[in-house]
Automatic annotation (TrEMBL):
SUPFAM superfamilies per record: Clavaminate synthase-like (SSF51197)
Keyword terms: Dioxygenase, Iron, Oxidoreductase
Molecular function, one GO term: dioxygenase activity
Cofactor: Fe(2+)
A Pfam family hit: TauD
Every TauD/TfdA-like domain range: 18-263
UniProt-recorded name of the protein: Taurine dioxygenase, alpha-ketoglutarate-dependent
Superkingdom: Bacteria
C-alpha cells in the first residue's frame, strides 16, 4: 500500500486515509512511515483496521523500531482515573512538554491509538508545537538569548515518571543537529486544581526577566504558524516526532469517554537523555 497519497493537516503534519475502510496498517512500509514523520512531524492514519487490544498495537509498533519499555510495559492507557494523583490522568489540560524528559532514553516517536474519542464539544485535543518552526521564525537575537537559558525541572514521582531534568531551551536535534527546543511549559500559576505541579528554576536569565521570557515563549509556541491541535476520531492512529515537537493536551469534560493508547519507539541508535 502506498503512502504517496497524503494531505496536509495544518501548518505541519499529514493525513493518510485508508484506500478502503479497515485496510491493514501492516501493509504500510515502516521505512516510509518513519520518513513521513521525520519530514512532517505528525502522521495521522485514518480509516485503517483498529487494533484489537494493547498487545495488537504493540506488535505493530515493533515494526517501526525498538519499543521503549516502562514499568507498566509498552502501552500507556491514557484515560481519566477514578482518583487521579497526576495531571496526566486527570481531565485537566497538560502543558507542553517532551516525552522521556525524566527517563534514561528519549523516544524518537510516539504512537497514539484513539480507542475512544472525547466526543464533540468535550475538548481533549492533543496539542503540538513545532519547535524547529518556532526557532526558524524567531530573530537571531531571540534565538541567541534563548540559547543562553537552561531550565531545571523537578516533579514528584507519583505515577510512572518523576525526578529532576536539566536542559537548555535550545538543543541540537539528535540526528540532524538542527536547532530544536526542549521546554516543559509551567502550569497556570493560580490553578489550584492542577495535580502534581512541577517546579522550574532558570539559569541564564535574570529572575526579574523570567515572567517576560515565559510570556514570550508561550506566544511563540502557540503561534498558529507552528501550532496544531488534533481532534481525535475513533480509530485514529497517530505517529509523532518527539525529537522536534512539544506536545500537551486541552482539558476535557469530566468523565468524557476519551481513551488513547500510547507507545514510545526509540531512535536508531537510541538517544541517551542529556537532561539527566
Amino acid at each position: 500500500m502506498s503512502l504517496a497519497q497524503h494531505q496536509k493537516l495544518g501548518p505541519f503534519g499529514v493525513l493518510v486515509q485508508a484506500a478502503s475502510p479497515g485496510a491493514n496498517p501492516s501493509a504500510l512500509a515502516p521505512e516510509e512511515l518513519r520518513a513521513l514523520v521525520r519530514e512532517h512531524h505528525i502522521l495521522v492514519l485514518r480509516g485503517f483496521r483498529n487494533f484489537a487490544d494493547a498487545e495488537d498495537l504493540t506488535a505493530w509498533c515493533g515494526t517501526l523500531g525498538e519499543i521503549m519499555m516502562w514499568p507498566f510495559g509498552a502501552v500507556l492507557e491514557l484515560v481519566e482515573a477514578e482518583e487521579p494523583t497526576d495531571h496526566i490522568f486527570d481531565h485537566s489540560y497538560v502543558p507542553l512538554h517532551w516525552d522521556g524528559m525524566y527517563k534514561p532514553l528519549i523516544p524518537e516517536f510516539q504512537v497514539f491509538q484513539c480507542v475512544s474519542a472525547p466526543g464533540e464539544g468535550n475538548g481533549g485535543r492533543t496539542t503540538f508545537s513545532d519547535s524547529s518552526g518556532v526557532l526558524a521564525s524567531a530573530g537571531p537575537e531571540t534565538v541567541e538569548r534563548w540559547s543562553r537559558v537552561t531550565v531545571t525541572y523537578r516533579i514528584q514521582n507519583k505515577v510512572h515518571y518523576g525526578g529532576q531534568a536539566v536542559s537548555p531551551l535550545v538543543v541540537p536535534h539528535p540526528a540532524t543537529g538542527a536547532p530544536t527546543m526542549r521546554f516543559n511549559e509551567p502550569p497556570i500559576a493560580d490553578d489550584a486544581t492542577f495535580l502534581n505541579r512541577p517546579s522550574h528554576s532558570f539559569d541564564g536569565v535574570a529572575d526579574e526577566d523570567v515572567p517576560a521570557l515565559l510570556e514570550e515563549l508561550q506566544k511563540a509556541l502557540y503561534d498558529p504558524r507552528h501550532y496544531y491541535a488534533h481532534d481525535w476520531v475513533d480509530g485514529d492512529l497517530v505517529i509523532t516526532d518527539n525529537y522536534t515537537l512539544l506536545h500537551g493536551r486541552e482539558a476535557f469534560t469530566h468523565r468524557a469517554p476519551r481513551h488513547l493508547r500510547r507507545v514510545h519507539v526509540l531512535g536508531d541508535p537510541p538517544f541517551k537523555n542529556p537532561a539527566l
